[in-house]
Input
Amino acid sequence: AAGVIQSPRHLIKEKRETATLKCYPIPRHDTVYWYQQGPGQDPQFLISFYEKMQSDKGSIPDRFSAQQFSDYHSELNMSSLELGDSALYFCASSWVSAGEQFFGPGTRLTVL
Amino acid sequence: GNSVTQMEGPVTLSEEAFLTINCTYTATGYPSLFWYVQYPGEGLQLLLKATKADDKGSNKGFEATYRKETTSFHLEKGSVQVSDSAVYFCALPSFGNEKLTFGTGTRLTIIP
Output
């Protein structure tokens, strides 16, 4: 069965650089979520999209933005990167009426 | 808002031992409850879920029962294996939307 695809899997950036993370949800899923997991931490919700519209926003810094495109893939754009942005970034998708979220393998971002 | 309190870790057990990881929740209404597992270096995988009170979720020998009277969703397995070594997260959706709130995670190590 198709799963959530995230790219890249690993990304190394310098401070103050920008990064773009991509997420391809499971086909026919209408909702995408982004989570950030710091080292040894639980995942924290960043932002979500339902049918290409932002549906909820969590603790996402103003330096970050995201969108969902017409093909339902989503991108998380991160600017002015800081050392503290180093984390594992997960994308999850769901068919909202089912409630169950399926997670991608994550993108590990390292900021040097 | 909805929240979960999860048993502190880490937990170290011998192979074939009985496992319990405690999870209690605070919620408005009766949301679905989830256990996710994160194997070393991998993303989050849904282990099991329960959608209403007294439901029992089960998968790979793990079980958890949605207990309304004690607001609990404890994870159990009768005989653990080395391959069960991972971090386990209890989770539930926030009231009014679907973003997940996770517990702090319990790192489980099984020794042969």
